[in-house]
Amino acid sequence: MSSATDAPAGVAALAVDGLAGAVLAALSTVRDPELDEPITTLGFVASRTVSEEGQAQIRLRLPTYFCAPNFAFLMVADAYDAVTAVPGVAAAEVILDDHFASDAINAGVAARAGFVASFDGEAADELDDLRATFLRKAVLAGTDLVCRPLVAAGSTPADLAALTLGDVPGSPELGRLRRRRADLGLPADDAAPLLIDPATGAPVAPDAVPLHLRRAKLTRTGIDANTSICSGMLRARYPDPS
Amino acid sequence: MYTKDGEKYFIVDSHMHYWDATPANWVPGAEQYAKGWIECFHAYQSLGPKETHWPIEKFEGYTEDDLMKDVFEDGHVDIAIFQPTYLKEWYTDGFNTTERNAALGERHPGKFIANTRFDPRDGDEGMAQFRANVQRYGSKGVKLYTAEWNNGSRGYKLSDPSCYRFLEEAQNLGIKNVHVHKGPTIWPLDKDAFDVSDVDHAATDFPGLNFIVEHVGLPRIEDFCFMATQEPNVYAGLSVVIGGLMHARPKFFAKVMGELLFWVGEDKMTFGSDYGIWEPKWQVEGFVDWQMPDDDELSDYAKLTTATKKKILGLNAAKLYDIPVPAEFLVPAQAGEPAAQDDAKLVTEV
Hints:
The complex is a heterodimer of chains A (242) and B (350). Chain A is mainly alpha-helical. Chain A has two domains: 4-124, GMP Synthetase, Chain A, domain 3, CATH 3.30.300.130; 128-233, no CATH class. Helices cover 51% and strands 9% of the residues of chain A. Chain A has a three-stranded mixed beta sheet with strand order 3-4-5. Chain A has a two-stranded antiparallel ribbon with strand order 1-2. In chain A, a hairpin with a 4-residue loop joins strand 3 (45-50) and strand 4. In chain B, strand 7, helix 7 (197-205) and strand 8 (210-213) form a beta-alpha-beta unit. Chain B has 13 helices and ten strands. Chain B has a single domain (2-349), classed as Metal-dependent hydrolases (TIM Barrel), CATH 3.20.20. Chain B has helices spanning 31-45, 56-60, 64-73, 98-106, 123-137, 161-172, 197-205, 221-230, 241-246, 250-263, 280-289, 306-320, 341-349, and strands spanning 2-4, 7-9, 12-16, 79-82, 112-114, 141-145, 177-181, 210-213, 234-237, 269-270. With 350 residues, chain B is of the alpha/beta class. Classes of the chains: A mainly alpha (242), B alpha/beta (350).
């Protein structure tokens, strides 16, 4: 059994390379829920191999031994789901290395056991609420990214309150904001207001726009600061990122 | 004290440690946690300037002489406040206990304030120990690490009834300041362990106590700021902000400082080096030299005045701990109105 990273020769290699590419693409859809970035760009994927038989093995790593176990579980479980869904992958194994809860997380994800069963007695519920909380933060942070150029171009709070998503020129930031809103079940179509309360979906009134934008900016600053500290910690822990 | 360009700064290091994380102090069977913890701290040190990095052996167990030199002789600090962290499940004699800190402090009169701690899960026995510590060491502050592991428990909240019992007793004993440090675990594990809403509840219910949220609630700066705007007795402890961002990520440091000055205000921000993670010298000198850069992206953030820096580096913490400060270090009463005052009104009105 050879692996994709061993660069095998011949026709089978092409198929495996294609499969390895598909696995990487699948992993790039998995995000750190807290940082709202793909685990691939964050450097959390330590290694990935795919055999000719379609056996995929992914090793993940995190910035510290004590990173929050709930977020770690989500990333391992999401990676498992994403890789398993790739056509041609017959079986997937996702292993989190060097973490205080590695054993519980790896065994729980492998058994498709869910978070509560994986952390017997230590968790009251699955992680859907946690994920939603951080999607709402991502919506707020994304709102800052989308609105800054509009404000710089002279849009007033009243202008912004009247805009719909379809009024805003297309951009990667807008696409991302729409996807996060859709993930939460919030309106994301062209007719939907640009500014909404990410908890309720209610439009933001003109007089509440300045504070809304200030919170959006604060949220983005917080996420950016966390990302910068996490990436610095990861570099200290694994000085030669693969 | 630190003098620069004719200005004199009284320095209170309001968050620092004297720990023992040497392998001899690792609890048998829990070595991986003791090792994981100190290695994590050591990685934080790597975010400071390269010439201030220590080898892991020194980092695990720096000496009293190291501390006195780094903090006072070289680090410009006038008064340092010990913040204990016990972690007795991983470190046999504790990581950084009240006793260990106070023993060092007693050898250097006038230099240290020894805070203590409690853990609501320790029950009546813990309460008795807490009372004894306050009486013996004259503590005016406590450090609470809510993610500490304790007999199978992964953490607690300030809003737990068992914790309120301790906070009530703290108030009775004359404790003024509660330093809160969030960590990655809590019960139940499916909740966000870094959530600060329990601090919000406690701050509302204990208006006679000040709550200094260390590391400004990192990684929940946004939740912390919004809470601090609305609670007059909530403060921002800057440990990790200066140490972890000022050198490694100056742009993000500027943004975080800008947000803190806007939401929390310069009268409610306190410097803490987090020594031995980072030496105070480069932090104090760097912060005195620092200014909000001229940059379009930072244009809505306030510039810092000399008074702002004097307050953050020492005067605010001196007020919290009733530390007498010679007149030459003080700022005129009018200098620097609280930066967040108008905005706080805005928030409560909306």
